[in-house]
Amino acid sequence: MMLRSLLAQNYRSLRSIRMDLGRVNLFVGENGAGKSNLYRSLQLVQAAARGTLAYEIAAEGGMASALWSGRRRNEKNFRIKLEVEVIDEERAVTFRYRVEAGLRPPIDAAGFAFEPQIKEEELSIETGSRPVTMMKRGGPGIMVRGAQGRMEEYPEQAMTSETAIALLGDAGHYPEMGAFRRMIDGWRFFHGFRTDRDSALRRPCLAVTSPLLDQDGGNMAAVFATLVHTRGDTVDLDRAVADAFGGARLVVPEPGEYAEFGLVFPDFPQRVFQPRELSDGQIRFLGIAAALMSYRQPPLIALNEPEASLHPDMLNPLAEMVAQAARSSQIWLVTHSEQLASAIEDRCGTRAKRVIRNDGATWIDGMRLTGEIAEDDA
To answer: Which residue ranges traverse the bilayer (predicted)?
Structure first.
């Protein structure tokens, strides 16, 4: 599965931006340029597929806060618009999904004031020469392509803040919508791992086979135990830990009821340092390692400023892990660090997209309106 393009309009600092995407998508720029809004817009697409878009927007202050923050022209129906194109390479199917959300009309009593109102939604697929609409929604009414290949009205209306893709993807009668929803649900977003003494990263966890890291890192010990005791292959992980921590070694005991881990450093070869004793940077690096090197890789891994709290010596090992993960997952990485960006460019053969402000709006330096970036400008 490959995310081929993203369109985001009227979301915070994103006035209107469309970009083509590749295997490794690296975004670098200064504070306030809007890098995190790009990351967040992609996360909101997943929220729409999961049926949690209203919650996510309400949690960040509601629609009034989420809408384009700059000057507005006299536009009717001012809305946030998100659109993605996703390719299922195995089945040679292209999915295009669009969702538009706006404010509740003053005279409309339905819905709550701070949650988004879904205005339009559409899913189409393309397997040949032209796209075929599978679902189209305007307001609460939903039209869907039925078993006979004709568009028909879905018998249940959607609530004003409810996405049709989540409603129909759960229905069990529309395999294309279910397939698209499962693909998007498989994306993983990792940002702001807690590293304080109560962090989930520092605690033992139930010993349950864990092929993927939870987004809060709470099953990190089980991810390491799965790699060590189930896969039995930790060559890449051991190399990353040794490179980042001056020759240190990860220790993962055979799990009992709980999975645990520790580090052994060359200066203290007889002692295992427990997670509670590690620095914020050390524990954060291990969290990123678990995200990038888990037993099963998600189709897309998004990292937001993974360099936070990391010692500069850890950036090259981090770039190496990104390059390893990119062999099986699509990567979306946002960073302030020029050093990290350069190291990833060297290892992945990609060029960083430089995020800037253009007339108050987030933009990619050198990008055309079509979403392409000229080779000379990349």
So the answer is: none
Which runs of consecutive H residues, i.e. helices, occur in the chain?
Answer: 35-50, 53-59, 63-66, 164-169, 175-185, 220-225, 235-244, 280-292, 315-325, 338-348
What percent of the chain is helix, strand and coil (3-state, nearest 5)?
30, 30, 45
Instruction: Report d(CA 373, CA 350) in Å as an integer.
Output: 12
The residues that bridge with 357 in the sheet, in sequence order, are 362
Pairing between β-strand 79-88 and β-strand 93-102 as defined by DSSP bridges: antiparallel
Sole residue written with tokens 């000057």: 71
In whole angstroms, what is the distance from residue 146 CA to residue 55 CA?
30
At residue 115, what is the residue type?
Answer: E
Q: How far is CA 197 from CA 73, 96, 189, 273, 278, in A?
A: 49, 43, 23, 15, 10
Question: What is the three-class DSSP state of 282?
Answer: helix
pTM, full prediction: 0.92
